[in-house]
Amino acid sequence: NTVITVGALQSNHARLTAAAAAQMGLACELFLTRSVPRDDADYTGNGNRLLQDLFGARIHLLPGEADSLAEAEARADMLRSQGRRVCVFPSGGSSPLGCLGYAACALEILEQAGNLGLSFARIVVPNGSSGTHAGLAAGLAAAGRDPVLAQSYTVLAPEAEARATTLAKARDTLALIGGGLTLADDSIRVDGAHRGPGYGVPTEGMREAVRLMARTEGLLLDPVYSGKAFAGLLHDVRTGTYAWGETVLFVMTGG
After folding, report:
1. In the chain, where does the domain assigned CATH 3.40.50.1100 lie?
2. Contact 127, 154 (CB under 8 A)
3. Catalytic residue among 11, 94, 129, 130
4. What would the pLDDT profile of 86-143 be if each residue is shown by its tens digit?
């Protein structure tokens, strides 16, 4: 009857968890860290923070360096001692079970591409809590395709850390799928060159990417996730990573 999750102050996952809990009649508690160096009222009280309150979630604000998952687990133990039934979700919902959603997404992409006669040189996504990339890699491997077809641009952790986390989660997801499949160490491709100074901190490349997509396609990228990932893709296109005529799929994960 209670769900708890963690994330940054303006976490999309936390907001969606609160909305889903409200719809299902469940109590919701959010452990939110101040991961972005901003303390203005617009950032701390607007956007997703406003919506989290509107959905009725109980908010626990933590400093950026806090171990939010440990805090959430401690709270869950206390609530369980009071007779509550509690489920704790990690940041981004990026557990092996959560990653199955993007494993299914990989299968859907392959099916639709086949129906349309398309072949992708790369499937590109942002990498925050690593679940999107991990799920896609696991799904591709389960379908007999090379998981390196998926590539991510990290917006949260440094490149090496993001790659290691993604690989571990992809392997755990494959274990959940079954079939005895595994992933080699070089199966995960993560680019950290467009992360900038840190999570949620704007970069010039991100600003250009957001403006370009808005003014040429009428589509909105967000500044934290998809904007930085698309900036990375633009850089790779311009520097010759892809041959003329190759097709790249950019997965807009929201933000």
Report:
1. 2-93, 96-250
2. yes
3. 11
4. 999 998 888 999 999 999 999 999 999 999 999 999 999 999 999 999 999 999 999 9
CB 158 within 8 A of CB 193: no
Topology of the domain covering 96-250? Rossmann fold (3.40.50)
Q: What three-state secondary structure class fits 4?
A: strand
Cα–chain-centroid distance for residue 228? Answer: 13
Candidate CATH numbers 3.40.50.720, 1.10.287.370, 1.10.287.620, 3.40.50.1100; the one for domain 2-93: 3.40.50.1100
**Residues facing residue 4 across a β-bridge:** 29, 88
Distance CA 46, CA 6 (A): 18
Could you tell me where the beta strands, DSSP code E, fall in 37-119? 58-63, 86-89
Please write the tens of the pLDDT for every residue from 191-248. Answer: 999 999 998 899 999 999 999 999 999 999 999 899 999 999 999 999 999 999 999 9
The structure tokens 């900036």 sit at 231
Active-site residue flag, 226:
no
What are the structure tokens assigned to 241, written together?
């990573």
